[in-house]
Amino acid sequence: MNPDPFGNLTDWAPVIDLFEELADSGQLEKIQPGMIRILRFKGNWRLREEVLKRVGEIQMPSKELISAVLSVLTDDNVYYDARVIAGNALCDLLRNSRPGHCDELITLVKKSVGKLKTNIQPPFFDDTLSRLHMAAEGRTVLEN
Question: In the chain, what are the domains?
Fold first, then answer.
């Protein structure tokens, strides 16, 4: 399978349909480069949200995918709803990752959350950051 089967992202309806079909058939591991491209694509919020809602299902996310989700979480130019979904996705990635695979994820999450927490955040986003921090801390205990 092509790791980026999505083609033109500006024609978003077929992209969403294909993404849902691939996700439902358990193909997310194989299409991580395409998911990264969608997360980086600023042209359609629906595509981004669909990927963020399902990315947590991946058992062995690539470093690039984790970085793309973290970029959404930490980008002050992205609306808060997407950033909250990104935080929830990262919690799911921490919970679902195989032992030993998420050490780097834990480190990146802690660093990013710590940096975000240095500024005052809206309460609903701060709650997401707190949940994410607790998930990373809990996973650190499990890994050791």
Answer: 12-143 (1.25.10.10)
